[in-house]
Amino acid sequence: MNALHRLIIAGSLAVFASACASAPAPTAKLAVAEQAVKRAEDAGAAQYAAGELTLAREKLERANAQAEKGSSESVSEAARLADQAVVDARLAEARTRSAKGEKAVAELEDSLRALREEASRPVSPQ
Q: Global pTM?
């Protein structure tokens, strides 16, 4: 075997070994998921969309646990779970904003009803 063949084989083995090494953690996806959960919490999702917020938190916890394992399968699972946590957190935030909007509309309708009743009362002469 000449030197060129040995060099090609050694290079191929190095590439193969690096491909089998643990994949980098999906830190960016985890950070985005953490921010999405925080935004949902800050919006009040614990009150208005507790189920979705709980799912987002659980998936984020599982994503962090998978990322710590470091294998390429675990890292892929961590990225998938982080993406799902973002979706759940955004849904929780959207449902919260919707519920708050509906509450504000109901309050405005009550105020309008009270104003209409006030306006429809006969004015007493003085």
A: 0.72
